[in-house]
Amino acid sequence: MFLIIGYVIVLAASLGTYAVHGSLAALWVPTEYVAIVGLMIGGFVAGNGIKAIKGTVAALPGVLKGSPYNKQYYMDALALMYEILSKVRKEGLMSIEADIENAEASAIFSKYPNFLHDHHACEFLTDYLRMMVGGNLNAFEIENLMDMEIETHHVEAHGPAHVVSKVADSVPAFGIVVAVMGVVNVMGSVGQPPAVLGKMIGGALVGTFLGILVSYGFVAPIAGQMEQKVEESGKIYEVMKVVLLASMNGYAPQVAIEFGRKVLFSGDRPTFLELEEDVKSRKG
């Protein structure tokens, strides 16, 4: 939503102010638009493998969607972990085996559809709960494994943002390429009247204008949105990590989820009383 609003502001500030003293028709040079877009797509394809291309294309629609990672999402996740760990404390680790082997059919997990639909986060949680069920674990080794998995997820998730950022960096240069081609065309028409040459030079400069505008006004914001969404999506893994490690170190479920609450960003973090009341209401 904010991406579209930003685009409107960019267009109003550039084309709108230009229209006050100039003709918008002078900026309409279709061949230069086609050339820049073609160069941008060509550079994107040439500079990336099939995995990076597919990942970037798949990630693009996400920039137009709102973030699911809000206070309610984290309260759901913490309440879910509280229920799971409470069941373990009362009935033993083997009591959650059916829940983690088929989370979709679990009476506990099905109460939290927002978290259940986050497949990567749900898989992370069930995988480490499964390891806890499987036998005695060294908390330090598990923490190290969690850190490595989170780092792997972080690097992989940042891939599309880095790709789009590189594309944004290249577009101004493509604009210069198009402008130079226009200037070369002008040099071959020096015998034309000044009015014709002026129009041709203006058309050539549109390439530079368009390259810079597309780069910083349209492509770079997409990379920024992707970067922010990756950072938001990574926080839940840190929450699950500290909650599970706290439980493995012998802390009660109420204390373990408090560890998780503490690592949340301030804008998404419920207060102690909010989380306590939420857990009590679900329990009731």
Largest sheet: none
Shape: elongated
Give helix and strand order, one letter per element, not per position: HHHHHHHHHHH
- The stretches of 5 or more residues where confidence is low (pLDDT under 50) are none
Give the number of helices. 11
Percent of residues in β-strands: under 5%
Rg (CA only)? 27 Å
Helix % is over 70%
Number of strands: 0
Cα end-to-end separation? 38 Å
Count of folded domains: 1
Structural class: mainly alpha
Mean of residue pLDDT values? 89
3D structure, described in words:
The protein is an all-alpha fold and 284 residues long. It has one domain (29-284). It is built from eleven helices and no strands. It has helices at 2-21, 30-46, 50-59, 71-91, 97-101, 113-116, 119-134, 139-187, 194-248, 253-262, 272-283. The chain is elongated and about 90 Å long. It starts with a helix and ends with a helix.
Q: Can you summarize this structure?
A:
By secondary structure, the protein is mainly alpha-helical. It contains 11 helices and no strands.
Describe the secondary structure blueprint for this structure:
Elements: H1 2-21, H2 30-46, H3 50-59, H4 71-91, H5 97-101, H6 113-116, H7 119-134, H8 139-187, H9 194-248, H10 253-262, H11 272-283
Helix pairs in contact: 1-9, 2-8, 3-8, 4-9, 4-10, 4-11, 7-9, 8-9, 9-10
Characteristic key phrases:
single chain; about 280 residues; mainly alpha; 11 helices; elongated
